[in-house]
Amino acid sequence: MTAFYVLDRLVTEAFTRATGKSIHAYAEIDVRMRTFISRRNINVPFFTLGLIVGAPVAAFMVIVAWQAATLAFHTLRLLQVWIPARGEQA
Length: 90
What we know:
Layout: H1 2-19, H2 28-37, H3 43-52, H4 56-82
Helix pairs in contact: 1-4, 3-4
């Protein structure tokens, strides 16, 4: 969980350095995706629900998967900025 968080922070910082803009405000898709996958405070409701239903380990795994999805999306967006479009000269 910590590794996904740290890697995601590194990717978002690299994106900002590459574009001069926050990854969460770069394009409409980034603004919309932030609503779903980039909110770290979602952990508390997931943990709470997991405790209520007696499945704290499952809740933890959902949080880890959530962070992995966030990292994957941000990495994809970073690669899209770094890799020029096909046919474009660098």
